Amino acid sequence: MTKLMIVEDNPENLDMLSRRLLKRGFAICSAVTGEEALEAAPREKPDLILMDIGLGAGLDGLETTRRLKAMPVTAQTPVIALTAHALAADRELSLAAGCADYDTKPVDLPRLLAKIEAQLGSATTGHPA
């Protein structure tokens, strides 16, 4: 089963996205801060990380991604940036920080699933609910 880590500081967004992805057959782990993600990702070994760029306290999602990419155990783990900002500059900053892709909030699940599939391959993305 494909494991996704969701790094999201908004409890409602975390709950909604977790439930929707669980229904699609993914295993889910989560973190609510960048620091928590840096601790949990090496232990959980997710296949892909969905990273909120606008984390409230502590490290933001861009710095968290940079640090994950600097760690040998998570360097190859694809990260998809999630943000409420839809500016081209935000996309470029996300990609420069090491994110493999970028998506905007509110999450359009079919679009996000397509991006997850593009990173992992369609055979690893769970099953339709």
Give the gist of this structure.
The protein has 129 residues and is an alpha/beta fold. Helices cover 43% and strands 19% of the residues.
Chart the SSEs and their pairings.
Layout: E1 3-7, H1 11-23, E2 27-31, H2 34-44, E3 48-52, H3 61-70, E4 79-83, H4 88-97, E5 101-104, H5 109-120
Parallel strand pairs: 1-2, 1-3, 3-4, 4-5
What does this structure look like?
The chain is α/β, with parallel strands linked by helices and 129 residues long. The chain has helices at residues 11-23, 34-44, 61-70, 88-97, 109-120, and strands at 3-7, 27-31, 48-52, 79-83, 101-104.
* Major sheet description: 5 strands, parallel
CATH architecture classification name: 3-Layer(aba) Sandwich
Low-confidence stretches: none
Quickly give the structural class.
alpha/beta
Write out the CATH superfamily name. Response regulator
Task: Give the number of DSSP strands.
Answer: 5
What is the chains' assembly state?
Answer: single chain
Q: Given the structure, what is the number of helices?
A: 5
- For the record, the count of structural domains works out to 1
| Helicity level | 40-55%
Series of secondary-structure elements, N-terminal to C-terminal: EHEHEHEHEH
The CATH topology is Rossmann fold
Supply the key terms.
129 residues, alpha/beta, Rossmann fold, 5-stranded parallel beta sheet, 5 strands, 19% strand
